[in-house]
Each structure stands twice: as structure tokens, then as C-alpha cells.
Amino acid sequence: MEQFTPTQIDALSTLVSTDRFSTGQSNRELHTKDISPHRGRLPAGIIWPVSTEEVSAILGYTYGQGIPVTPWGAGTSTEGNPLPVEGGLVMDMTRMDRILAIRPQDLQADVQPGVFRKTLNANAGRSGLFFPPDPGADATIGGMIANNASGVQTIRYGATRDYVMRLTVVLPDGRVIPTGGKAHKSSSGYDLTRLFVGSEGTLGVVTEATLKLAGIPVAHLAATVVFNTLEAASQTVATLMGSGLSPAALELLTPELIGLMNREKGLGIAEKPSLFCEFHGVSEAALHETAALAEELCRDSGALDFQTGVKERERKDLWRARHEAWETIHRAFPGRETLIVDAAVPISSYPQMVVFSQQQLDAKKAVGFVFGHAGDGNLHVVMVGDPADDGEWASLEEINDSIVHRAVDLGGTCTGEHGIGIGKRRFMQLEHGAGYALMKQIKGLIDPRGLMNPGKMFL
Questions:
Q1: Are 82 and 74 in contact, with CB atoms under 8 Å apart?
Q2: Where is the FAD-binding PCMH-type domain (predicted)?
Q3: Spatial strand order in the sheet of 99-103
Q4: Which residue from 105, 111, 107, 98 is spatially nearest to 130, judged by alpha carbons?
Q5: Which domains, and CATH codes, for the chain?
Q6: How does DSSP classify residue 174?
């Protein structure tokens, strides 16, 4: 659906103020692409609600009219999760951006879905608190909930679903339901909150969330660990994770990516297989003891160098460069697109996956970079190519398929944090087996007309 009828335009226009509904070409085109290589179908219109009541009224109307609805956050998805594949109405949630309350005594915040992660942390930080999930991009909270976003600090702090306590959700037909509560534990009924976290907007629209917050750590210590081989670096991950030292972040980087980062950011890091580690604690003294033990373990595992004492500015520069790895790769290959593998495996299988992935790139002479959140077994392979070149792009898809199949064979997943969206739908049956059919039944129960973010997760 790329055009509304005049009657539909009139009806939708009455549900929000005149400046918050548009059928203009430029607004529609802006909502056909995110940062992924996928492209959506031109929607018939964009609407910007500001309250639960407006979302309810909008969905009540669209469901009766058979209009597909696609929720939209910051547009930072790497799998086309918010792209309208059947046109219809895009519901842009970025004007529902109020922090309703920060309650330091409860370590909680109540927010609308359009609040950006960095904005929440800037406000929570005044009370010595923060929202730990960090996907790198400044995503909206609603988008992070929809994708169960995580990031570099997941091994210490967990993913978004670990911080969502309560939701207000508008179902596809406009009904409003609450899920969860503000108590820190409950044994009451089905966990509906977890059903909606990670559902990618296919079951409804989150309009309010209560989130757990954590105390900002007093001290940070960063370390860079250099190895001679990629296999030695990745094998050390299991050693560190099993040591009880509890790193807050543990990232694997290959020489090729470090080279790009050095040239763009001037970091001066050795261009060898490396681990970037960060530890959080109550004092600098305690962290130096931790680092000494970590260094001993790493050197026993073949580390060539172990550097700590990274200054605060250098630490932030290092992590900023890591967060911007995808952008750095994109800038290094102008005019090309990236295909991102986001598989995750048990930590014991991580070395095997790293070596296997590099072998796949080498065998097909593909341009690609292997790295990832090594501490939780999440592997990223960013491949570069031209989607218009069918042969080249098909080769990248073959590499993607082979890595995902190996990950699933090892008890892993096709996506550790980016979600299914458009790009990974074909792997759902492979990964979930009979559970995939049950997921489709749940979707059909809540959204029998299939109008809520259609074309995502399921083929």
C-alpha cells in the first residue's frame, strides 16, 4: 500500500495534530532505509504519536482498515527491522521522548519509547546511575526493547531484556495492556514482558517502559592484549571468562580492522590479533590486582604484550573507535555496502568460529573483517561488496550462510544482538525447529490480520 484514500487521509489526520501526520514524498522516502543494505517499500504516510492514547486510536483505525503499520525508532538497525516492506503507515516513535521519572531509590526509570539511550544516561547519571545495555549506536529505548539490544558490556551487565521490568503495550487492534511490574521479582503468571522484548514490533507497540538502572562504576581499567595468532587470542577468551575476574567488556579485533582504526583514528595500536578488555570495580587498587591476574593468564595463553594504565581519554578513544567499527569500514570502502554476520556460539566454540569465519573469507577472496563481543561468544563478520553485482553479493551470502549454519550446529544462534528483521528470516526454521511454528502461532493469535510490522522475522 503506497497510497491512502482521501477518506483514510482525513481520518488519520484527525488522530494527531496536523504537524504529526505526513504523506509528503520526502518524509516517506526517509523511512525506506536504515543503515542496512535492505530497502523498504515507500509507505503511504508517516505518523508521529505522542501518547499511548494516540497510538491506541491509530492502531484501532488502521486495523479496521487493513493498513499495515511499521514502528520506527532511530533507524539504526542493521537488518531492516523498521523498514516498511508492505508500505502502509510508518509510526515514528521519536516524539514520544519523555523521561517520565527517574527513581534513584528504586534504581528504576520510567520512559517513553522515543527516549534515546544517551539522553537517558545523561539524566540518570545525575543520580549516579546508568542504563547499561550499549549497542554502540544511540538507539531509542523502544528500538532497543524491540531488538533486545546488547553490546560490548553484555558479559558484565546483560542485555536489554535483563533491564525491562514493566511495559505498556498497544496491541495491533488498539487494545492497551500492561505487562510486568515494578517489583524486582515476581512469580505471577506468564512472563508477557519477555514475550514483547525482542519481538521487533511484530506483536504490538511499546509506549512506556520501566527499566532497571545500575550504579555507575567508581573505577575503570582498560587493557589491550596482543597475540601472534587469531586462534591464540580467541582461545584466551574462555580462559578469562572462566577465571572469575568478571571483565565488563572483552572484544576481539583482527589486524585488518585495527589497521583501519589506526589510519582513521590515529590510535597507534599494534596491528596484530588483539583483545580489548575493560574491568569495573570499587577502586583503582582493586582493579590493578585484577589486571595483574588477567595479565598472568593471558601470558600463559601466549600473549605477546599486555598493556594497562590506559588513560581516561585514551580509553574513551579506544572504545569510540570500536563502537564506530562499522562506520570506519564503510568509510574505507565508499560506494559499497556491508553484509553483517551476527552469529553467537557457546564460548568454548568461539575460537573455532573465529578461525572458520576467517577461512571462509580467505577461500572466496572476500573483503571482510572478523571481530566481535568475544566475552559472550558473539561474532561479527562485516563483509564489503556491491549489491548490484549479483555474483559478488551471492558470494557474500554464501559465506553468511556457512557461518550461520556452523554456529547453529554448535548450539548457537543466527543473531546475537541485531535481530532477525528482513535479512535473517531464512534462518529461523533452521535455528528454532518446531519452536518456529509456535512463534508463528503466537503471532497469528495476537495479530491475526498480519498487519503489525509485516515481513519481519517470518517468511
A1: no
A2: 39-216
A3: 99-103, 108-111, 205-212, 164-170, 176-180
A4: 107
A5: 6-95 (3.30.43.10), 99-215 (3.30.465.10), 219-326 (3.30.70.2190), 333-442 (3.30.70.2740)
A6: S
